[in-house]
Structures are given as C-alpha cells and as structure tokens.
Design brief:
By secondary structure, this protein is an alpha/beta fold. The chain contains eleven helices and nine strands. It has helices at about 5-15, 20-35, 40-45, 50-65, 70-75, 95-110, 125-135, 150-160, 195-200, 220-230, 250-260, and strands at about 75-80, 80-85, 115-120, 140-145, 170, 185-190, 235-240, 265-270, 275-280.
C-alpha cells in the first residue's frame, strides 16, 4: 500500500465519525507516524508504507474514531505558534483562548514590575505564551496555578522546554487559595461547561472532566474565583475570564458584585461569540 492509499483510507475511516476534520486528522496522524512534515508527505505519496507504520497508523485511526483528540494521540498541540506537550490529564488548548492571550500581551506591553496569575493553567498554554512574548529582562513575574498534580507536571515540562524557569512559577492549588501577595493581572480559563453539555458531546469524552465541569450552571469555579479575587487583586488590577457566551450576563453580574465600580469589556472569539470578560478594577477600591 502506498502512502497515498493509506491516507485516503484514513480519511474515509474517520469520515464516519469526525467528518468535519477527517482529512486533516488523517494527514496529521500519518505525518506523526512517519515523522515527516507536510511537504515531505506529499512528495512521497507514491512511496510504500511499511507494515509496522501501517499498523501504528491503524491504531491511531481507531483511537481517533473513538473521539480521542488528535493532540492526545500525537502528544502535542500548537497554541500561539508554540508546541505544547498535552495529555489526557490536561485540557487541549483551543484557538479561542488565543484571543485572551493576545489581549493580555497587549495589556502588559507598557507595564513593568507586575505579577500575572494564570488560574487553572492546565498545560501552561496561557502563562507560557504570555511569558514567551515578553521582552528579554522583563521585570515581572508569572504564576501558573492548577489543582491537578498531573497538569502541573505537564506545565512544568513545557516551561522547562521553553527555558522559562526564572520567569514562571508553578503552584499546585485551588484557584487563588495559595496566594498571599497582591497580583495585577488574573487570567483564567476555568471549567465552565454544564454536566449535560459534556455528556452530550462525545468529542469531550477523553478530556479530563475536572477541566470541563463547572457545575450545574457552569459557573461554580468562576463564582468562587471572583468571590476570592478582591483579597489578592491589587487596586487597578485586571481579570480576564473565558466563559460560555451564554454566561456573559451572569459573569458580568458576578464581577460587578465582587468589584463595584469596575469597568467591563467583552471580547469576542474568532467566531464572533462573547467568549471573554475583562474586569478592570477601580484604582482606589477602598476609597469608593
């Protein structure tokens, strides 16, 4: 069998379950098995595929047909132009979260000596993407927090691979509970799905429920974060939260209760949906 025939068979096989991405998924998995880039694959389409490579490819196709993420199958996911190690212990980074990261990078551009916290860090995609974008010698610090030991282990490996040990601190803990000093920017992509949303979507079956389930309304973790945030967010500090667009009004209400007088901005995602709420707190919260 040639590589072309194997690729065509892979597309056909995945079309039965993941039709929207069957072609790309089949190609990515085949390139992963062969250890080659896209250009090389298309130059070699008429080459034969070895029995061992075909068996490995078949195994990956079978797993993908069971809705296991391609990122889990190849062990990595590109985010903000960086390749992150991922595994079943962390949520696969999504393109819509890049909007929040790009906003944070722009916010930090003219600021020094600030502390940034990524809450629910997972693979470290937000914290490490922000850190990578900072100029050499940037006088600030970034903290990545996750309750999962497995997530912190993966995030730490990503941090070390990007040589960001001096810039990014990893903490295992629940939300902001481990913080005692003021922070200037809180970024959070917390679990915000309702149980029924998860159960009805087979594409999410392989991802950790801990990173998806936000409780009955999808707001348990966001509510808890905003409840504790006034304790650590400095006057004039900012929070950037990712959410289900249908939660916009509820999250804005929670944010204004936690931070009276704050300014609220809503950022759309790549599809134009209200995906992120930015909370600009007042410069003198106690002064009223």
């Amino acid at each position: 069998m040639t590589l072309s025939a194997a690729l065509r068979a892979g597309r056909d096989r995945l079309a039965e379950t993941v039709a929207d991405s069957a072609g790309l998924d089949a190609e990515v998995l085949l390139r992963h098995v062969l250890g080659i880039d896209r250009t090389t694959l298309f130059m070699r389409l008429q080459d034969p595929i070895s029995p061992d490579a075909l068996a490995t490819y078949d195994h990956l196709l079978e797993a993908r047909a069971r809705y296991i993420s391609v990122a889990y199958l190849i062990g990595s996911k590109e985010f903000m132009g960086l390749s992150f190690e991922v595994g079943p212990g962390v949520l696969v980074p999504r393109p819509e979260t890049e909007v929040l990261v790009e906003w944070a990078i722009a916010w930090l551009r003219d600021r020094t000596g600030v502390t940034v916290v990524d809450v629910g860090a997972g693979s470290g995609a937000i914290a490490l993407s922000v850190a990578t974008a900072m100029p050499p010698g940037w006088p600030g610090r970034i903290i990545a927090i996750d309750i999962s030991a497995e997530a912190i282990a993966i995030a730490t490996r990503n941090r070390d691979r990007f040589a960001l040990q001096s810039m990014v601190t990893m903490i295992q803990g629940s939300l902001l509970s481990q913080l005692r000093e003021p922070v200037d920017l809180v970024l959070a992509n917390l679990p915000y799905l309702r149980p029924g949303q998860i159960d009805r979507n087979p594409q999410l079956a392989a991802e950790p429920r801990l990173a998806l389930d936000g409780g009955e309304e999808g707001l348990d973790l966001i509510r808890a974060l905003l409840s504790d945030a006034p304790r650590v967010v400095s006057d004039g500090g900012v929070l950037g939260l990712e959410l289900d667009p249908r939660q916009r009004a509820a999250v804005i209400d929670l944010a204004t209760q936690a931070f009276p007088g704050s300014g609220i901005t809503v950022l759309p995602d790549l599809a134009g949906l209200d995906r992120h709420v930015i909370v600009q707190t007042a410069q003198d919260r106690d002064g009223g």
